[in-house]
Amino acid sequence: MQLAAQLASFLVPGRALFFLIHLIGIACFSYIVAQRLVPLMRGERDFRFDQPWVRLGRVLKYWLGQWKQPRYRAAGTLHIFIFAGFLVLAIRAFSVLIVGVSPNFVPPGLSGRAGDVYGVITDYAATIVFLCMLIAVIRRLVFKPARYAVPAKYGKGHTADAIFLLSLIALLMLADSFFTAAKAAAQVRQGQPVEVLAALSLPWMIRNALVSTSLPTLGRMYFGAYFVHELTFYFLLCYRPFGIQFHVETSLFNIYFAKLDREILKPVRWGISDTQLDQVKSFGIKTFEDFTWKHMLDFYSCADCGRCSDQCPANAVGRPLSPRFITIKARDYSFAHYPVFGREKKGTALIGSIYSQDEIWSCTTCGACEQECPLLVEYIDKIVDLRRGMIDEGNVPQSLQKPLKALESRGNPYGKMEKKKADWASATEFQQTCRVKTLDHPNGAETLYFVDSITSFDDRMQSIGRATAKILSHVGENFGILGAAERDSGHEVRRFGEETLFMALRDHNVEAIKTSGVRRIVTADPHAYNALKHDYKDVPPVEHISQVIAREVESGKISFHPVENKNDVYTYHDPCYLGRHNQIYDEPRDVLDAIPGLKRVEMSRCRDRSFCCGGGGLMLFYEPKEEQRMGVKRVRMAAEAGASVIVTTCPFCMVNIEDAIKVAGMEGKMTVIDLTELVDRQVIRECPNAIEERAGEIKECVMASSHILK
Ligand code: SF4
Ligand code: SF4
Question: Is the pLDDT of residue 4 over 80?
Answer without folding.
Answer: no
